[in-house]
What we know:
This protein has helices at 12-21, 50-71, 74-106, 109-121, 124-181, 189-231, 241-245, 253-261, 266-273, 304-309, 311-317; strands at 280-287, 291-297, 325-329, 335-341. It is α+β, with helices and mostly antiparallel strands. Among the domains are: 53-106; 195-226; 244-341, 2-Layer Sandwich (Threonyl-tRNA Synthetase, Chain A, domain 2), CATH 3.30.980. Strands 1-2-4-3 form a four-stranded antiparallel beta sheet. Strand 1 (280-287) and strand 2 form a beta hairpin. Mean pLDDT is 78; it is low at 1-25 and 244-248.
Amino acid sequence: xxxxxxxxxxxxxxxxxxxxxxxxxxxxxxxxxxxxxxxxxxxxxxxxxxxxxxxxxxxxxxxxxxxxxxxxxxxxxxxxxxxxxxxxxxxxxxxxxxxxxxxxxxxxxxxxxxxxxxxxxxxxxxxxxxxxxxxxxxxxxxxxxxxxxxxxxxxxxxxxxxxxxxxxxxxxxxxxxxxxxxxxxxxxxxxxxxxxxxxxxxxxxxxxxxxxxxxxxxxxxxxxxxxxxxxxxxxxxxxxxxxxxxxxxxxxxxxxxxxxxxxxxxxxxxxxxxxxxxxxxxxxxxxxxxxxxxxxxxxxxxxxxxxxxxxxxxxxxxxxxxxxxxxxxxxxxxxxxxxxxxxxxxxxxxxxxxxxxxxxxxxxxxxxxxx
Length: 371
């Protein structure tokens, strides 16, 4: 192409090509680096399996959280404790109580325990009394053991005498019937009837044997369960929620002993550490549906006044208000009479005075001063 002055020039395409290939800043041709667009990594498109796998993991995690919350819920724990108590613990506790009673009945273990308690309390009069009772019980048990040696022979002899006497009585009765009916066949009629009665009894026992063999173990288990529930003590972690939070709401010998052991009296603490056990002249019993009355011994070095001075602590240990617990000296030296009212009894209004509106009273027999 030509410019305005008529000079012939290079084509535009060549000029553009030269401009693009011209070296920059005096660099030699062919030494510059070629600039390329950044490479992109091709990604495989997500398949349809990723979403189901993620959803399955999420469902498993949510199910685990739900199961964990349900397993640790209060109602679940209470139900597990109830099931454990009523299927294992009550039966085992009842069997233990029954075995302990049998052991104490066959030995002097009970008397020895009471003698140790009396000795720890310094009550030597009661200690001598228990020693005498233990010796008497030992003699009676020896006589029973000697009786068992001669018992089989005596049973056989008595059974033979009763059998012969019964047969003779039946023969006499048959003779009377034969004379009355003028028929000799009546002589053996009573013996025949007695034989039929024995056969019927054997048949009845054979019929009742199978049901009895099934019912007897059930009754035994029910008895053990009832004995363990009423007389035994289950571990605290397996106890009902109310009894676990307040183990002495219902006053028991164990609750009283635990309350005494935590009064903070040095002499009491030393006695408990040395093995002293409280002895109850009167176990905790319910009185008029309003509280519990009990009488128990004290160890050497502890007086009823010391227990009364710790009434606030004793009330706290028995889960009561201070006004609901009244310890006092008993008639027997070294013992304490304790009255424990029901929880909240001091907050309830008092019942009306019995002579407020009507009624009569003998002033020589006594006048009610309170309710």
